[in-house]
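Example 3.2
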Amino acid sequence: MRTEKILSYAVALTAVICILVLAGCASTQPNKIIANEKLLAAAGFKRHPADTPAKLEQLKKMPQLKLFTRKENDSEYYIYVDAQHCQCLFEGGREEYERYQELALKNQLEADKRTNEKRDRPRDLDWGQWRFRDNW
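Structure, written as tokens:
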């Protein structure tokens, strides 16, 4: 009887942990989408809202949350679609796309730098014991 009770607690605890982990993953996704859409806007992409039900239905049929190209006449356009969150699409040309790539790379390098600084910073180290250059 006691073993069954412990087992039921273990199963319940495992279920709670799984739910929390999945909820954590789900909550970070919208933040990444919002950050990416801000980056697109900063790069000069134009935001076009799906302001009619027909436009929203059309958005839902397009590739979601990634850049793709569309050619019209002799021009190439870069399109990013978000039918779920902003219910809009972003459109830009070659210049906006190149600016977006520059900004995305800059953001990634800054994020990597912050991560490395946190990881490489020694914690709880008494530097007072060390005398640099004096001992050599």
